[in-house]
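PROTEIN DESIGN WORKSHEET
SECTION A - STRUCTURE
LENGTH: 331
TOKENS:
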């Protein structure tokens, strides 16, 4: 009983598949160019008008060989791609045919047309064989040829039938150049990153309810550090910070009387953007902006501090949440 049911299902699948194939054959346009049976050298490709009118004296042997080799590599790649596509199409067709739950609509819509894929593979293999024949003919020609050499004339005529010239086809003109970061704001680049810290306006507890937002600037590069530290718009009494004894960014607090919280925020930023960021405890030097100067001939980022230097010790691991909050204010 089971064998009879399986046999009936197989017959139904075959009948449905034959009906699908017949429908596709009727709808499929003719994609193969008819050629004369008596003409053995007839090919499917149309001769190029530019190469067709070119005199044989102007053809280059080295150029034709190079272009033939390029066309052979191109044809081999197309054959490989078409073969892979055909193999995957057959695997998909077999999976659909063996699927008992597949309906007729699934077979008609999802099943690939293997006949078209096989025809495409045959056409691309024929093209590869034709190009290889041209390469073989060129191999029989010497290094130097004369226009009246019959072997050279045969090569040129054969190349014309294959639409192959002695030079690669011209490249299409390039389109307009893409603008980098076109979706982003096109404002000029700043030499610093700006962070916001909430500070008491008086720097003490005399009026703890009155708060203001203070900007903290962090230099981006060594050259930018010079701009941030020596900016003429800096107030002499504003605060400047830097990780002590190691390279790092210059930090400027845009306030003359920052609160302890803002002072800590600036020190954390100076420690984070320094070579000592992975150390447990980081010492940060703090002075007024008027105490920062640039020695003559010093390299970018190197400054001189004068007067009393205040030192603050911070731990980035203990203040990770505070640093994360500062990062959210970065502009």
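SECTION B - SEQUENCE
RESIDUE ASSIGNMENT:
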């Amino acid at each position: 009983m089971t064998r009879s049911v399986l046999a009936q299902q197989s017959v139904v699948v075959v009948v449905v598949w034959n009906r699908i194939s017949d429908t596709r054959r009727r709808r499929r346009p003719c994609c193969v160019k008819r050629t004369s049976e008596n003409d053995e050298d007839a090919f499917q490709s149309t001769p190029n008008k530019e190469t067709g009118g070119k005199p044989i004296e102007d053809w280059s042997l080295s150029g034709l060989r190079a272009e033939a080799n390029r066309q052979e590599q191109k044809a081999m790649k197309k054959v490989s791609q078409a073969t892979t596509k055909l193999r995957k199409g057959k695997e998909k067709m077999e999976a659909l045919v063996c699927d008992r739950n597949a309906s007729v609509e699934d077979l008609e819509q999802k099943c690939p047309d293997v006949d078209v894929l096989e025809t495409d593979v045959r056409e691309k293999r024929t093209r590869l064989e034709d190009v290889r024949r041209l390469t073989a003919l060129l191999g029989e020609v010497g290094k130097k040829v004369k226009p009246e050499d019959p072997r050279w004339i045969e090569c040129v005529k054969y190349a014309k039938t294959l639409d192959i010239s002695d030079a690669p086809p011209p490249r299409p003109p390039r389109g307009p150049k893409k603008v980098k970061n076109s979706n982003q704001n096109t404002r000029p680049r700043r030499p610093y990153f700006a962070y916001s810290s909430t500070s008491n306006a008086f720097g003490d507890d005399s009026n703890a309810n009155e708060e203001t937002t203070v900007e903290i600037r962090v230099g981006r590069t060594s050259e930018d550090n010079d701009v941030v530290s020596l900016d003429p718009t800096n107030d002499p009494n504003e605060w400047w910070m830097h990780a002590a004894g190691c390279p790092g960014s210059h930090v400027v607090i845009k306030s003359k009387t920052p609160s302890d919280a803002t002072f800590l925020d600036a020190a954390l930023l100076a420690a984070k953007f320094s070579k000592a960021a992975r150390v447990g405890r980081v010492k940060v030097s703090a002075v007024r902006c008027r105490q920062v100067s640039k020695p003559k001939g010093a390299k970018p980022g190197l400054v001189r501090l004068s007067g009393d230097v205040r030192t603050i010790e911070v731990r980035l691991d203990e203040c990770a949440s505070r640093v994360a909050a500062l990062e959210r204010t970065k502009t």
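SECTION C - NOTES
The chain has nine helices and eight strands.
The first helix runs from residue 2 to 27.
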